[in-house]
Amino acid sequence: MTADLSQLVKAYDVRGVVPDQWDETLAELFGAAFVQVTGADAIVTGHDMRPSSPGLSRAFARGAAARGVDVTEIGLCSTDQLYYASGAFDLAGAMFTASHNPARYNGIKMCRVGAAPVGQDTGLTEIRELVESWLDAGTETATAPPAAAPTAPAQTPGTITQRDTLEDYAAHLRGLVDLTSIRPLKVVVDAGNGMGGHTVPTVFAGLPLTLVPMYFELDGTFPNHEANPLDPANIVDLQKRVREEGADLGIAFDGDADRCFVVDERGEPVSPSAITALVAARELAKHGGKGTVIHNLITSWSVPEVVREHGGTPVRTRVGHSFIKAEMAASGAIFGGEHSAHYYFQDFWNADTGMLAALHVLAALGGQEGTLSDLVAQYDRYAGSGEINSTVDDQGARLAAIRTAYEGREGITLDDLDGLTVTAADWWFNVRPSNTEPLLRLNAEARDEQTMQRIRDEALTIIRA
């Protein structure tokens, strides 16, 4: 296998097809490079249910241990369970998952001590360069680096031990949200054959919930549907089951269970922006009506509005977990949310956990007598397009065309925080280029559906010209 790391190492993680783009040999080198770049003297690793995950995870552990680093393997886990272990044990960590990608993919999400992210600006570039230098020198294992390697293998290898953290993880989450006094709720959960099937039964144990499980069998081939609830096609089964069961709500998790998506009692999807606003209001109340809340620039206008109404300070940032986590740390924010259904908590080492967001929704719904649709109506105030992807030949040229079409118009502002955002009094839209594909991503919102559709179609006409 000839590895092309430019295709494998992304902005936030390592991700590619196994074994075509990477394999256990390369995973071992990543393990050695990870500990060398981070300076960690002990790490924790975990993996999802994909067929290739246990072997890749163990190879990474071998590479780290070869450098004298002790490795704690927590085995099958969700990504936020790995973040829990990193935070609770004060260890750098590596999670083996490709999240919602198809079965042939796998990847590594890495973090420093306390679940601090490792992205292209915080160590991932250096890890990639180190692995590339070893590959160029003909190195095939972490135990036999070239003479030019900055750090040679340790004379005494580190240990590799196993530890079960599921009960501790569940207890930590339940300690952050009080669900003991809520009214009984019936909840359908679609785990998509992903790691939610592993974590939900333990986290929900003992709570006043009637759980209706869907696709809880761990199966990295995803036999029922892709584990990507952001695609409406993948929540159809959940929507139907919620209606059939007369449930109070439905929850869907992605493959590594770090994102949660919610449908109401009618089976209608609840906007992740509405969930962000709801959880923000609860976190602000918990902190005495004060605190900073981070939201990315494609969340609804309702998010900063709700934050201000509840005494908080909203801070707008770029899309992407490394930007959110960095801003969380810099500002001391109590909570952060993205429209992709990533939710970040100060009480969870600034890391994202869909499970904690789900517990907040259950607590909010169970703490009053109304339906979920009634509850979230106060947080879902505008008409949104959702994310629309368009394949283009020249991302820069299409963005320039949008700028030309709108700049100088009265009452319209443009900003370049992430892609191009065009804002008027009653609407806004953002167009961002994909980092990995020839795509432009459009998100639009307006005060009414008719205006949103007009602005959406006007922008798409320019993008797809």
From TrEMBL:
Transmembrane segments: none annotated. Keywords: Isomerase, Magnesium, Metal-binding, Phosphoprotein. SUPFAM superfamilies: Phosphoglucomutase, C-terminal domain, Phosphoglucomutase, first 3 domains. It holds the Pfam family PGM_PMM_II. The keyword Isomerase applies. Residues 7-133, 167-267, 277-382 form the Alpha-D-phosphohexomutase alpha/beta/alpha domain. Residues 387-459 form the Alpha-D-phosphohexomutase C-terminal domain. It comes from the Bacteria. Its cofactor is Mg(2+). Belongs to the phosphohexose mutase family. NCBIfam families: PRK09542.1. This is Phosphomannomutase/phosphoglucomutase. It comes from Streptomyces tauricus.
